Amino acid sequence: PKDSYSKGLSPPRYQGVKVETDCDLLWNYKLNLTTDPKFESVATEVCKSTIAEIKECNEEERGRGYLVSCLVDHRGNISEYQCNQYITKMTSIIFSDYRLICGFMDKCKEDINTLRCGSINIGHKDVHSQGEVIACLERALVREAEQQDHVRPIKEECQRAILRVAELSSDDFHLDRHLYFSCRDDRERFCQNTQAGEGKVYKCLFNHKFEEAMSEKCRDALTTRQKLISQDYRVSYSLAKACKLDLRKQRCSLDTNLPRAREARLSYLLLCLEAAVHRGRPVSGECQGEMLDYRRMLMEDFSLSPEIVLHCRTEIEAHCSGLHRKGRTLHCLMRIGRGDRSTTVDSVCQSALQTLIQSADPGADYRIDRALNEACESVIQTACKHIRNGDPMILSCLMEHLYTEKMVEDCEHRLLELQYFISRDWKLDPILYKKCQGDAARLCHTHGWNETSELMPPGAVFSCLYRHAYRTEEQGRRLSRDCKVEVQRILHQRALDVKLDPELQKRCMTDLGKWCSEKTDTGQELECLQDHLEDLVSACREVVGNLTELESEVRGCYYEVETSINDIQIDALLIRACEPVTQAHCHDVADNQIDTGDLMECLVQNKHQKEMNEKCAVGVTHFQLIQMKDFRFSYKFKMACKEDVLRLCPNIKKKVDVVICLSTTVRNDTLQEAKEQRVSLKCRKQLRVEELEMSEDIRLEPELYDPCKSDISRLCPNVAFGNAQMIECLKEQKKQLSQRCHQRIFRLQEVEMTDPELDYQLMRVCKQMIKRFCTEADARNVLQCLKQNKNSELMDPKCKQMITKRQITQNTDYRLNPVLRKACRADIPKFCQPILNKASEDSELEGQVIACLKLKYADQRLSPDCEDQIREVYFRSLHQTNSIFSSTMTLLQISRLCAEEAAAQEQTGQVEECLKVNLLKIKQDGCKKEVLNMLKESKADIFVDPVLHTACALDLKHHCAAITPGRGRQMSCLMEALQDKRVRLQPECKKRLQDRIDMWSYAAKVAPAEGFSDLAVQVMTSPSKNYILLMIALSVCVLFLVGLLCGRITKGRALGHIVKDSFLLFLLFLLLSQMPGL
Predict the structure, then answer these.
(1) pTM for this one?
(2) Nearest alpha carbon to residue 172 among 72, 97, 48
């Protein structure tokens, strides 16, 4: 093959020698025969009417042999039978010697001598070797086109004569003497059954040119003839005949601005007729078949394109030597042209490659590219068998299966090499051109298929199209629906490899080397650029940002009915990985023809379904993380909230900041009960979706993730991201978090408690229970609804456990209980202001405010609404030991003193009862104070003491049924019944009441009253309260009388103090007399 290549570039030269006498006599006889007046007179008689019809022949000078040669020249137009037979016989005589061809000797004599083509090779005795002279001239002609410096240029009139001779011999291969004798054996081997005439033998030999059994001599001769066809399509009889009418109809030979030689070029013919086909103009099937054959010929052998040989010589010799056959050299150049970091290709060579690809137009029919056809045959048979053979959608189908298990490596390489060049000229994708040619002319001012413009080069047209793809109606000048679908398809395919996006590769070459040199796997380069978006140079950042924005816009589903190819969203690798979950949960949106974002939204919502595999989950999360860099990267969010962002959050780009800004606005408007929300309804709906998505993965909330990174690695090293697992882990380890992370987690919990729908774990675990119990509940009251139904027999255990967790969390800080916070908004600053003064805004109060409110509840000083909420806190905490005791010391004492009770399934009040009984054994002050407070709180109402309430249930029904619960009224009723000897209480109730009296007495000793309110509570709960009250009243009276007596003899000022003190004691007495039960 290497020798063959060398011959193709530098064919051997033939040295001229003296013609042997015998051969010279034969040739002179032939020359005299054609110039003999008798011979010419026979032609005049036989072809009389034909000569009259053919003007050129009628005007030829007689007696020089030109008449017969002219008739041979126009033999295709001869209709007379006898004339046709005569001229056919004469043709074989004339073509045996170049000197016999009309005017050839006169036009090329000087070039024959200059090029030293001579008449015959040394030692060659073949009487037909005069064909070698023409062959020598033909080789010189094609070699001249492949050389930059024309050392011995052939005269123009001789060039035309050479091509004319080749054209005249195009009908019958016998007429090309050199090729005939070079390929006699090969013709018998490959084309034995092919009849001569109409160029059939030529075509058969062309088709077998790269067969192993083909002789090198014949292959060289065939290559020379193919090169001549490249210079003048008329050298191919079949092509010129099949396309004659189409060329005239499509006006492919009437451009006065171009030289005739240019119009005769095969590439010009192909481009002109291909333009007509792409525009939908009629071109005969016979002509299209011939065009297909010669387009395939150009792709098979690079040496047929002079520009490739001329401008890519260095690259071929350096990288592609020995790959001459079956289009492998061309694909080798394409691979280098793709811009491999290790090799580069000259810009002129790159341009030559692009021109050749346009001429051959393999995008219209993959079979034109033989290397691709052979490499991808197995893939086409399996993955694309439903598509008609030769359909342009075959290439699109192959791109759809790139990097799948059906793709083979060789096909993958050939496909990407070709797509690299197709992506640089929008016209080379026939489907795109067909659907978008009207839009391109209207919006991008493009010209014809085979015309270019400096203002709008081919590579810029697609950029223009996708800029118009997603304009709103207000912006105007939008793409048609069909064109938009094709733009989506192209973007989808370009996302597979950054080299398929010319603008991206051009602007980001430096950044690819700097940040992504090791990211060479499929799709990794684009992901790497997106990950380093802030670090890129401005030009690269702009194009990556625009691509990512557009990527989000077409991230939906495109479905081509004719081919049944699912072309879902721009990232083909992701969508293939997500096919199982798409089919199981998102098939409704996947069946939409165009869906801007619904499919990705569905994948996010179902990210943790059993059908979701690791690749899909990682890909979906990557898209979510990229979207956080700029709100424009989320198409649905951008379209819904663009105006709101410009109006309410100007100069903010990061999505998370935009979401926070808009959410804060919505929240403030809601809290202030504004008449009209500043954020539009459609934006509020989409904002809710974004907030829900962000709550699923801590990495989607940078303000939370960044301060908690160290805590994550320290406390949750084995917890996976996603499904809100990491956030839940941090919540459970809240007391061990760093200060910044603790503050962020607390702020998150505050938002979630205000809006439970943002609590991803709660909504996930309790999804079915919400449907069962809370379908009619407002989204912000979901947790409240779940709490109300927590003890239902139908409640799912996992959901019940999650509700309990949230209740425990709510008891740690009043701000985490929105209902309580609202009900007690007046009581908290009134009774618990010192606690608020000590705490900072983001610090957690660890249950201090709720404990304060509980004590005030025991003192019966809370407002009715607040009292109801504290009562509910008591009631909900009866089954939750952890929600009652916040002190670590208390929990330790429980494990030491009350382990059995704590482990019991039914522990309603048993742990508290155990601590009360063992109060004397508790040494730690913090734990003791908590139990004492619990004793004090139990006086507020009997239901706060579940053990006592259970023991005295019957007595309450019999003796205190008329007493309204609350404010200690039922407790006072039972105490009076205990002291009344006429009332017989249940033994267990009586025993428990007596125990409580003893406990309260001990508590009074251990924790004396701190003020009048505590003193009043202790007096009223004392068994001797009547005696105490009587003594207080007598003391007041005595003091008052003494004051009166002493007032007569003391100064008025002293008397005034005494009266004042007496009056205060009297008021105390009145206050005590108004206490319940007195």
Answers:
(1) 0.57
(2) 72
